[in-house]
């Protein structure tokens, strides 16, 4: 009996220990499950505010709205392709000032301190005070201006709609030099290339499919390279993006090229045309194509890492922040993708598409853009922890 009792006690103790182990394991798993769910994050996209940028409703033909919003101080400045440019309070969207411009302001602008420079569709190039909208000077190009300007050492450079590239004194608007290039093709895409600058040399694309290097002081040609030779759309409207000695530049319905800045020679090329400049993060390029894809490529050789096919239209230029890329679809949504995988994180539908590259306020997790309907949006986009008990 004593032996049986000891045996029974041993068995019971063993079972109790097993039970404790199983219970502890179960409780541990429950704890891990609760902890992981409690710490789960989701990417949330919410509209903070939206404002119409036109003074009156546009009852005529639909215009192109693609100016990237400008952030300066507590203002966000936005032009439209209808009737002008205006400034809004960044947090609330309250109107601060408005400058009427006939036929509107289509291209993006350049900012230095309180001075804003932009081309307009009324045949003039403007310098205004960013804080008040007061005009400092205008320069007549006598044709609509569709390209974003570049500022450097007191000189503003821009390409007019007639393939004339200007250098103006930023303080006075006085013309310093110009470079003109003829285009004999019958078809051209609406737009223009913003110049890029490296070591005193400007690089700019033209509608005849050429990339030209110009001396920034004199406007003299350093070299020129014919890239896009298509019979239909040969335009190089994308901004050249410089990284070291490499220039990344796309032809509209052609290819993405990597070009030596020093020699003006093609290093590599990738099939698929582009309208916007590439964006660079580390060893990656993000390339929005006119075929309706966003490509993630190796910067060194153009090898494809991943691709994302947009649902509607073509993508705008990509903006990068906190491991995320943001871009608009010309006939669809504002999209947010994971930078490393191309996985969709979030989206929002503004109506009538987006042609403007978004502007990112990374500190406040806010994205600004103008829609095809000329509405300025402020979007809050961020990772948010989900509470287990709220699910």
TrEMBL record:
Domain Pyrrolo-quinoline quinone repeat: 85-308
Keyword RNA-binding recorded: no
Family matches, as Pfam families: PQQ_2
Signal peptide per UniProt: 1-23
Alphabetical keyword list: Signal
Keyword Acetylation: no
InterPro entries: PQQ_b-propeller_rpt (IPR018391), PQQ_rpt_dom (IPR002372), Quinoprotein_ADH-like_sf (IPR011047), WD40/YVTN_repeat-like_dom_sf (IPR015943)
PANTHER family listed in its UniProt record: CELL SURFACE PROTEIN, OUTER MEMBRANE PROTEIN ASSEMBLY FACTOR BAMB
Protein name listed in UniProt: PQQ-binding-like beta-propeller repeat protein
Organism: Bdellovibrio svalbardensis
